[in-house]
């Protein structure tokens, strides 16, 4: 218990005073997981997203069609999404980038505000995170790397929206890491310009004054309940926190100093590329100083209502998988506009 508190405190006092929102410049974190050829990609190639589409002479009908596809890219073809999923699986196999792809999907959708009816003002899974202005939000430090990793897949399947690709990548990463199958829907429409990005500050802080209240404030705004908050937090069974990005975590531990992927950071679990219920076991016991417990993680065993679910997931991985899959699918749909309106599924 004491050791865990020390880990929390140590993390809290490291480098930055802010919590989830890093003050580290995004560009600093340029090489994690990346083959050097990708790490060297100019940032301008991400900034100028609409220009990635084929450039045709403006006067031709073809040009108008191309620009139309840019705005209506969500008229997606299930066959293309399936092919993209195969490519994502290969990317995961070769770069071990599961955690950052999950974080990418979550940070695109987690800006949703259920009290705002209009799309895209309500935020959510709409591909806005591809724009520089949003990537530069403190909470998104490092996610430019995730975008660089999947941009070649986006370039290959142009009818797939960014919003769908982000969520496809995240769900595929969970499944490939050994997690449950997520009942996904596709057909999300992309926002078309950086002016449609959400304001900064919609995502949770890791070290607020009252972590349980803060979690409820942020996740209730998205339409989640206590059970879903605890289940979805279990995503931290994957991945690491890096002080140079979020300000949280140790620069390296015995579990991260050799990678896989770029070495370093502090993970929540020993096997941080394996999706299981070890996150709950570790944040309950807090016995290993090399493992991270953020204040918002600790709150899951401190708040009585959260604790009931956290205890259940510690004991029963099947129950965790079932609730996680539902909560993840809900997260992936937040605020999304689908074309066709009911969306479509890929399997079964
Ligand atoms: C409950 C509130 C949450 C807080 C306060 C929080 C905070 C954080 C922080 C500070 C990091 C470290 C980022 C870095 O330094 O690179 C992180 C990483 C991560 N988060 Fe969360 N998070 C929350 C919820 C979630 C949810 C809902 C998901 C997914 C459904 C998620 C998935 C991840 C993953 C997979 C990583 C590891 C990324 C990597 O290894 O590159 N988090 N989170």
Automatic annotation (TrEMBL):
Its EC number is 1.11.1.11. It comes from the Eukaryota. Keywords: Calcium, Chloroplast, Heme, Hydrogen peroxide, Iron, Metal-binding, Oxidoreductase, Peroxidase, Plastid, Potassium, Transit peptide. It holds the Pfam family peroxidase. This is L-ascorbate peroxidase. The keyword Calcium applies. Belongs to the peroxidase family. Ascorbate peroxidase subfamily. Residues 241-255 have a biased composition (Basic and acidic residues). It comes from Zizania palustris (Northern wild rice).
């Amino acid at each position: 218990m004491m050791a865990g508190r020390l880990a929390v405190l140590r993390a809290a006092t490291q480098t930055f005073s802010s919590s989830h929102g890093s003050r580290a410049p995004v560009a600093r974190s340029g090489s994690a997981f990346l083959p050097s050829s990708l790490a060297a990609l100019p940032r301008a190639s991400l900034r100028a997203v609409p220009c990635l589409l084929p450039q045709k002479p403006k006067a031709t009908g073809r040009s108008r069609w191309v620009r139309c596809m840019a705005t209506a890219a969500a008229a997606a073809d299930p066959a293309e999404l399936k092919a993209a999923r195969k490519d994502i699986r290969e990317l995961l196999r070769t770069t071990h980038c599961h955690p950052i792809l999950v974080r990418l999907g979550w940070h695109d959708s987690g800006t949703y505000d259920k009290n705002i009816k209009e799309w895209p003002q309500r935020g959510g899974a709409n591909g806005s995170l591809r724009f520089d202005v949003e990537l530069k939000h403190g909470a998104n430090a490092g996610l430019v790397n995730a975008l660089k990793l999947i941009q070649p897949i986006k370039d290959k399947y142009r009818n797939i929206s960014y919003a769908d690709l982000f969520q496809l990548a995240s769900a595929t990463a969970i499944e490939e890491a050994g997690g449950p199958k997520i009942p996904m829907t596709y057909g999300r429409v992309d926002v078309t310009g950086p002016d449609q990005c959400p304001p900064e500050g919609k995502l949770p802080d890791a070290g607020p004054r009252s972590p349980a209240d803060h979690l409820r404030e942020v996740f209730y705004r998205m339409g989640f309940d206590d059970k879903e908050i605890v289940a979805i937090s279990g995503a931290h069974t994957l991945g690491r926190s890096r002080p140079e990005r979020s300000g949280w975590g140790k620069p390296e531990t015995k579990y991260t100093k050799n990678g896989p992927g770029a070495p370093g950071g502090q993970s929540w679990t020993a096997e941080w590329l394996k999706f299981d219920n070890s996150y709950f076991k570790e944040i309950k016991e807090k016995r290993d100083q090399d493992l991270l417990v953020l204040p918002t993680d600790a709150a899951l065993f401190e708040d009585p209502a959260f604790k009931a679910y956290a205890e259940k997931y510690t004991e029963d991985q099947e129950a965790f998988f079932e609730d996680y899959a539902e909560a993840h699918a809900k997260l992936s749909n937040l605020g999304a506009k689908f074309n066709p309106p009911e969306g479509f599924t890929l399997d079964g």
